[in-house]
Design goal:
0% strand; single chain; 303 residues; mainly alpha
Amino acid sequence: LHRVDRRQRQMCIRDRLNEVCKWSWMFKQYLRDKVIDDLKELEIFIVESTESLKQEATNEDSVTLLKILKTIGSINNREKHIESMFNPLKEIVDLLKSYDMSFDDYVSNQFAELPERWITLKKLSAVVKMKIAPIQAYQVDLIKKRISMFDLRTKLYHEKFLRMPFFRVPCSNVYELCDVVHMEMIDMEKQIAGLRESAIHFQLNPPEEGKLMHCRKLVRMLKHIWDFLHAVSSCIDDWKMTAWKKINVEDMETECKRFSKEMRNFDKDMKVLKPYIETEAMIKNLLTSLRAITELQNPAIRE
């Protein structure tokens, strides 16, 4: 028994050591991959940024200018991180070497070259920033005008939108109008996204989005309430075809109360819309009619 016990302890210790070795190897491999990946990512960033900064921008070429500004912004944003990354990576390399994990010559060359290439890139960024300053000023003026024109366009569109027929009852082509408005707003939202991006890079106030967002909110609410109005109307039209003796007032009244309960949960802004008011009135009138039908169905009523 003593020998069996001892053998089990040895097996347990061996299993534990194997587990430790496995996790140790995984962690060392993770650190090695991190060094290689971080240096590779930095090298790619330096190459791509250098190519971007070498582009020639003109007054009319806002696309190229925007790419250059994005690159300069990325360099500025990453400066602190990049300049503080080399020493920790070198410490990782030294640690792994003490555990007999080696790196190829390419990694050693990266440690030697990348800091200098990064400094060169920063200098190029400063030179290019000064070079494009007049073009940037021209584009700033142009984008300000585009934003002003777009703000005027959204104001006029908002006024036109509030006069659309789907705000009134009846309206025979509600869904066709909703589709048209939806496509128009998608186009305007794409434009506003482009202007917002340009405004961010040129440090300008973005275009006013409030009126367009209000239109988007209203069209969603209108679609919802018109769906509900058609559902209620369809249900009432079916009930109108019921034979007098087969009218089940209790079931109809229960369904009407369910409709009313659903409407009470609608957004408060929906409750001022004409389709909502019309639907609410339709349900109230039907409930009043059902009370009259209950009295008329009484067998004791006189001719």
